[in-house]
Amino acid sequence: MVYAIVRAGGRQEKVEVGTIVTLDRIKADESGNISLVPVLLVDGETITSGADALSKVTVTASVLNDLRGPKIVIQKFKNKTGYKKRQGHRQELTRVQITGIN
User: Fold this and answer.
1) How many CA atoms lie within 13 A of 11 on its CB side?
2) Which helix (H) or strand (E) holds 52?
3) What does the pLDDT look like over 9-24, one tens digit per residue?
4) How many CB atoms lie under 10 A from the CB of residue 57?
5) What is the C-alpha radius of gyration for the chain, rounded to an integer number of angstroms?
6) Which NCBIfam families match (predicted)?
7) What's the rounded Cα separation, in Å, for the pair 89 and 28?
8) Boundaries of domain holding 87
9) Average pLDDT over residues 81-92
């Protein structure tokens, strides 16, 4: 069983070949592929975590689609001053499928 922990969008995700992951918006190349930075690689009993060994490892993924996350509402209120503010936000996301860990 081969899997990797990759850094994507300020978070770390555990991925295997064929895994579908939703990440923060990532710009893909013209063929629709991206490369993710590995933090840890587990290949059966072998665990690779050194920076020089991980520089040789590539994790590739293909972009399935771009989407937006659920709307969150930010509300601020201060009592007895008449101050209230309401704001909404929807995060830009990308859904990718892992195609290879080499």
Assistant:
1) 8
2) helix 51-54
3) 889 999 999 999 999 9
4) 16
5) 19
6) L21 (TIGR00061)
7) 24
8) 2-101
9) 98
